Amino acid sequence: MGQKRIISAWIRGGTCTEPFAPPASDRAWRLVLLGAPGVGKGTQAELLSERLGAVHLSTGDIFRAAGNLPPEQRSAAMEEALGYMRRGELVPDELVIRLVEERKACLRLPCGFLLDGYPRTVPQAEALDNLLSGEGLALDAVLDYELPLEVVVQRLSGRRMCAQCQAAYHVETLPPKREGVCDHCGGRLVQRPDDRPEAIRVRMEVYQRSTAPLIEYYRERGLLVTVPAEGTPEEVFERSLRLLEQNAAGATRRG
Ligand code: AP5
After folding, report:
1. Per-block average pLDDT, block size 10, for the chain (255 residues)?
2. What pLDDT, on a 0 to 100 scale, did the predictor assign at position 255?
3. Of the candidates 73, 83, 91, 198, which lies 20 to 30 Å from 62 by C-alpha distance?
4. Class of the 3-147+212-254 domain?
C-alpha cells in the first residue's frame, strides 16, 4: 500500500487493510513528534518519512480535511472540534482518542509511523500506550523539537498552506516559486485560521499547560530524544537522524 493511500485512509477513517507495506529503510520506525505549534514538526515529518519510509500521520490533518468538507457533510462532533481548533484550543481528549482508535490499522502497518500532533495530553499518551500494547507494538522514540518562542511565532505567522494539498510554505524561508500558488499542485496558498495572532497566543498557552508535561512522561519511559530545532529544515533533519540513531544504538547497548 502506497504512503498516499495510507494517509488518505488515515484522514478519511478508512480501514487500511492491505497486509503489506514494505519498510523503505532496514527497520520500521514507530515515532512520535512533539514540540510547540510551529516548531516545524510537519516539515520534519515529511523529510523523515521520505528517508525512513514510516508514514506521516497527523491528527491536525484529519481536522483540516473535515474543515474542507461542505458543512452538511460534517458530523456534529466534527463541527464542534473545528470550533476548538479555530480558537487555538485542543479538541477534547475523548473525541481525538476515539478518532485515533478508529484508525489503528494505520499504526499496525509494517512500514512504521510518524505520529505528528498526537498525543498532546497525558490521557492521550496513556491511550496510545494501551492501543499499541494491545497490538503488540511499542514506540521506538519520541522526538521533542525545541525552539525559542519568538522564532516559533515568526515561523507560524509567515506560514502559508496549500488549500488543496496542504503543502506548507513560509513567506520568507520557504516561498513558493509563484506568489500565492502551490509548487506541487497549483492550488491557492492561504493562511490557516489558527495562525492568526490571537489563536497563536492561545495555542502557546495550551501547549505549555497540556502538552509540555508529555516531555517528562516520555523521559521517564526512556523514549525522549530532544532535538534543537534551530537552523534550516535540512539541518534540523540531519540532526534528528543523528540523535535518533545515537538513541537507538544506546537502547541496543542498554537492552
Ligand atoms: P496541528 O496540525 O497538529 O498543529 P500544531 O501542532 O499546532 O503544529 P503546526 O502544524 O502548527 O506546526 P508544525 O510544528 O507542524 O510546523 P510546520 O512544519 O508547519 O493541530 C492543529 C489543531 O488541531 C490543534 O491546535 C488542535 O486544535 C487540533 N488537534 C490536533 N491534534 C490534536 C490532539 N491530539 N488533541 C487535541 N487537539 C488536536 O512549520 C511551521 C512554519 O515554519 C512553516 O511555514 C515552515 O515552512 C516553517 N519552517 C519549518 N521548519 C523551518 C526551519 N527549520 N527554518 C525556517 N522555517 C521553518
Report:
1. 81 67 73 95 94 93 87 86 91 94 91 95 97 95 94 92 90 94 96 88 92 95 96 96 91 72
2. 66
3. 198
4. alpha beta
8-state DSSP, 189: E
Cβ of 45 closer than 6 Å to ligand 1, yes or no, is: no
Strand partners, 211: none
Cell numbers of 204, please? 502557546
In degrees and rounded to multiples of 5, residue 30 shows phi and psi of -120, 105
Q: What is the grid cell recorded at 123?
A: 490521557
**Ligand 1 center to residue 164 CA distance, Å?**
17
Residue range(s) occupied by CATH 3.40.50.300 in the chain: 3-147+212-254
Nearest to 33 by CA among 194, 195, 240, 246: 240
DSSP 8-class letter at 120? -
Closest residue by Cα to residue 69 from 122, 145, 12, 141: 12
DSSP 23-47: -SSSS-EEEEEEESTTSSHHHHHHH
Q: How far apart are CA 125 and CA 97, in angstroms?
A: 9
* The one catalytic residue among 30, 64, 155, 192: 192
CA distance 103 to 106: 6
Q: So what's the pLDDT on residue 58?
A: 95
Give yes or no for residue 96 CB within 6 A of ligand 1: yes
Nearest ligand 1 atom to alpha carbon 33: 14
Tell me how far the alpha carbon of residue 175 lies from the centroid of ligand 1, in angstroms: 17
pLDDT digit string (tens) for 5-47? 888 888 888 666 654 555 556 788 999 999 999 999 999 999 9
